[in-house]
Specification:
The structure is a single chain. The longest helix is centred in the last third of the chain and has 22 residues. The protein is elongated and about 55 Å long. The protein is built from six helices and two strands, in the order H-H-H-H-E-E-H-H. Strands 1-2 form a two-stranded antiparallel ribbon. With 135 residues, it is mainly α. A hairpin with a 2-residue loop joins strand 1 and strand 2.
Length: 135
């Protein structure tokens, strides 16, 4: 798992120089949720608010994320992907998927099915609060 995480962190920088693995993850979450507050990101990923704040600031400077007032509470700022953020996220996602396809190209179908089942099982366990910080 450590080697997998190390490769994921290293590949994020190769995919796009402005995106760390954490940045890519945060962008993906913002896209999936169609925006959220920075405190929601911190809570979801069990990260310190200052860590999220630094990451979000870097994404804002890069023009990938913007803050908008919450329509229900003007005091609250909601983070959203910019069009540039959506494009870069899509580009990196395509490259990551291509890298996975290449890496798994010579696996037999049965191995792929088992691997997918193991990943689903592992991810389901994380969703129940079992070991979110271990990944």
């Amino acid at each position: 798992m450590t080697a997998f995480a190390r490769r994921a962190r290293a590949s994020a920088g190769r995919m796009h120089p402005e995106l760390s693995l954490v940045s890519y993850t945060l962008l993906g979450h913002l896209e999936e949720r169609d925006g959220c507050r920075a405190t929601d990101l911190a809570a979801h990923y069990a990260l310190d608010k200052s860590t999220v704040s630094r990451q979000v600031s870097a994404l804002e400077r890069a023009g990938l994320v913007e803050r908008r007032p919450d329509p229900d509470d003007q005091r609250v700022q909601v983070l959203h992907l910019t069009e540039a953020g959506r494009q870069i996220l899509a580009q990196v996602t395509r490259r990551r998927r291509a890298a996975f396809r290449e890496r798994l190209a010579d696996w037999e179908e049965g191995d792929l099915v088992r691997f997918a089942a193991y990943l689903e099982r592992y991810n389901a366990r994380a969703d129940t609060g079992g070991d979110e910080g271990a990944g």
